[in-house]
Specification:
419 residues; alpha/beta; Aldehyde Dehydrogenase, Chain A, domain 1; Aldehyde Dehydrogenase, Chain A, domain 2; four-stranded parallel sheet; 19% strand
């Protein structure tokens, strides 16, 4: 009789829990060795990984995946080197475990410490981007957590090839290879079993489209760290330097339109409408479709009329919504109504106004005079990220090694008893 999905998760989960107990008491040097050796293995196995990725790309193209999705899936020598370098950057970070977060002494002489410790076993469910296999595994390993990975069916060959390199690093460092496991089936029912595995998992992180994240949030029996949308905004204030603004807007939208940090709506102050031509010229030259409100469409016939649905859309494509606003208050109101709390910001030369604008944004990441595409753990100095969190508990924004820890209270006495 074949193994059921629940039985599979029990087997993987028990092994992960065993590995997590080992990782919790390892020193940073051993975990770093595993990361550095895995980086070397990725470089040494580059041709194998790239061949696997070409197989995935061919099958994805046959299935009709969009250009943005194919871009997420695609690996090349540069991206592969970035993956390996990311593991080395994670290894170079300070050890997140054992940090003394606080300490105090009670009147009865008890000394209490709050110390950073691993969360335990983390499940990561993701789509398309095979680099997540390395990023998630590296961050979990550095922070002393075991991880069970479930990548998308469109990247299965790539993920398996990368996973083999990661396991080589674990073995070389003398760590339990069950510290990084890849779910061996693409059956969607196995995802349900993973989400129900509260006996083994301490947290689950979904990285993918709205449908995936919504399912995880609805079905998970363990805490979820996630964002649902990346409907990101920039507000152009009339005090902004227009050359700077054009460059930032073009990068925020078109550097990689298919990532969650891409700009989706540009709000233009009505006092800055004389700058709109330069913005439109640059974006159209880059192949971006522009959908705008009636006022902007009247200014430039190259713009398409936006519908109400456009203000709520995460395109993940070369499409940008544009809207004129009466000032900062109206921009903030638009973001509050239509934004997803991911990454929003302002382009302005007035620093005081910008500081007030950022303070009033209810967003995980708030930017001033910078591209929204910096919403990335690597760009924050985290080496990589396991995802972006838009909730308020237990982490917010890019989730790196520090955010993959919890804490333990340690109480030291000299024989005190409670009266």
């Amino acid at each position: 009789m074949s193994e059921t999905h629940d039985e599979l998760l029990d087997r993987l989960g028990e092994a992960a829990r065993r590995a997590a107990r080992q990782l919790a008491v390892t020193d940073s040097q051993q975990r770093n060795q595993a990361l550095e050796t895995a980086a070397q293995a990725i470089r040494q196995q580059a041709e194998i990984i790239l061949a696997a990725n070409r197989q995935d790309l061919d099958q994805a193209a046959e299935r009709g995946l969009s250009g943005a999705m194919l871009d997420r899936l695609r690996l090349d020598s540069s991206r592969l080197e970035g993956m390996a370098a990311g593991l080395e950057q994670i290894a170079a970070l300070a050890d997140p475990l054992g940090r003394l977060l606080a300490e105090w002494t009670r009147p009865n002489g008890l000394r209490i410490e709050r110390v950073a410790v691993p969360i335990g076993v983390i499940g990561v469910i993701y789509e398309s981007r095979p680099n997540v296999t390395a990023d998630a595994a590296g961050l979990c390993l550095k922070s002393g957590n075991a991880v069970i990975l479930r990548g998308g069916s469109e990247a299965v060959a790539s993920n398996r090839a990368i996973h083999r390199a990661l396991v080589a690093g674990l073995i070389e460092a003398g760590l339990d290879e069950a510290a990084v496991q890849l779910l061996p089936t693409q059956d969607h029912e196995a995802v349900g079993s993973l989400l129900r595995a509260h006996r083994w998992l301490d947290m689950v992180v979904p990285r993918g489209g709205k449908r995936l994240v919504a399912r995880v949030q609805a079905e998970a029996r363990v805490p979820v760290l996630a964002h649902l949308d990346g409907n990101n905004h920039l507000y152009l204030h009339p005090s902004a330097d227009i050359d700077m603004a054009v460059a930032v807007i073009a990068n925020a939208k078109m550097r990689r339109p298919g990532i969650c940090g891409a700009l989706e709506t540009l709000l233009i102050d009505e006092q800055a409408l004389d700058s709109v031509g330069a913005i439109i010229d640059r974006l159209l030259a880059l192949g971006c479709e522009l959908r705008a409100d009636a006022r902007l469409c009247a200014l430039d016939g190259r713009l398409r009329a936006a519908s109400e649905a456009d203000w709520d859309t995460e395109y993940l494509d070369a499409i940008l919504a544009m809207r004129s606003v009466a000032g900062p208050e109206q921009a903030l109101a638009h973001i509050a109504r239509h934004g997803s709390g991911h990454t929003d910001g302002i382009l302005a030369g007035d620093d005081a106004l910008a500081a007030d604008f950022l303070a009033r944004l209810d967003s995980a990441i708030a930017v001033h005079n910078a591209s929204t595409q910096f919403a990335d753990g690597g760009e924050f100095g985290f080496g990589a990220e396991i995802g972006i969190a838009t909730g308020r508990l237990h982490a917010r924004g890019p989730v790196g090694v520090d955010q993959l820890t919890t804490f333990q209270y340690r109480v030291f006495g000299q024989g005190q008893t409670r009266p």
